[in-house]
Amino acid sequence: MANTTKLITGKDGELLVTTKAGVNIPLAEVDAFTAKVTINNTDYQPLGKSIVYAVNTGYSVTLTLTEAVVRDDVMIMEFIEELQNGFMPSFEFQGKLRRRKADGSVEFERVVFRDCVPDGSIDLMNISPGEVIKRSWSFRVNESPEMLDSFPG
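^ that's the sequence the OP posted. Answer follows.
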């Protein structure tokens, strides 16, 4: 039988961004984020075979997030300043999950996403009357994700 006390929910997750100074700042205003790997394959069917094989040609990693607009000093200010200077900013993120162990201590899973460059459409302002103002971001991760901590089996 599954031990449901080990199940993890959204309240156990956190996203951090690393500033230029190397400080990890929890993004408490982020209510949702997703990191995905897209595998790229090409088909190969040798003569005399009915099966078509998948041959891996690479992969890409994307990270998307939605933040409630609370402060502009962490990401959007840097983004706009870099654009004004003719550059595209790069960010580093850490996704973090926590789980309480039977002895009361806490264990973590952490994945680092480095060299994240903005990709696609970025909300500069997205305003509707009566709604919480949110900003959507999409990034292409230009380094392989790194697992710093993982949950034991």
